[in-house]
Automatic annotation (TrEMBL):
InterPro entries: UTP_pyrophosphatase-like, YgjP-like_metallopeptidase. Residues 108-180 form the YgjP-like metallopeptidase domain. Residues 13-27 have a biased composition (Polar residues). This is M48 family metallopeptidase.
């Protein structure tokens, strides 16, 4: 992240660490200190980065403690929003009805944690679809695209012209593919530790 060229009174100071806490899906934590912020601490996700807003007067120890507290809080909020396997199966059925006239009927649809190089996979002979846990927390249209992609494999196993014709039915195919390509490209960028503002 580029360093702040100016340090004016009240302008937030930023520091970044590239080491995520265990269990976190983010690759960086950015702490923004503000002289206007007196007591409150807040946090939000910005792409694959977590931004934590704290008062400028906080010590290093207080910063570390609050970063940990806010990451736990965000994780708890996000875990409530993540679809379970049952909801994922129901979603796949709705997408099949919508885009394939219900012809793609998987036997099982579930999240898996062992797919780090693929977003999803399908075994047509078994009727099973697996989505990478890395999709959790991404926009719904991206998860839907991966589901539609894998559902299409139940009808056409390979990636030939007929397969890509089926995917044209999903209106956000290009946008979702662009999003996923951006995530892959960002993951390949070097994560350099940023210097702390003094």
């Amino acid at each position: 992240m580029p360093a702040d060229p100016l340090h004016r009174a009240g302008k937030p100071q930023r520091s970044t660490t590239s080491l995520p806490p265990s269990g976190s899906r983010t690759s960086a934590i950015e702490v923004r200190r503000s002289t206007r912020r007196r007591r409150t601490v807040s946090a939000y996700r910005e792409g694959d980065r977590t931004v934590v807003l704290i008062p400028a007067r906080m010590s290093e120890a207080e910063e570390q403690r609050w970063v940990s507290v806010m990451l736990d809080k965000l994780a708890a909020q996000e875990s409530k929003r993540v679809l379970g396997d049952t909801e994922l199966s129901e979603r796949a059925a709705r997408l099949s009805d919508l885009y394939f006239d219900g012809r793609a009927r998987p036997v099982s649809v579930r999240w898996v944690t062992n797919q780090n190089t693929r977003w999803g996979s399908c075994t047509p002979a078994e009727g099973s679809i697996r989505l990478s846990h890395r999709l959790q927390g991404m926009p719904e249209y991206v998860v839907d695209y991966v589901l539609v992609h894998e559902l299409a494999h139940l009808l056409v196993p390979g990636h030939g012209p007929r397969f890509w014709e089926l995917l044209e039915a999903y209106p956000r195919t290009e946008r979702a593919r662009g999003y996923l390509e951006g995530v892959v490209a960002a993951d390949r960028l070097p994560h350099l530790p940023a210097a702390r503002d003094e």
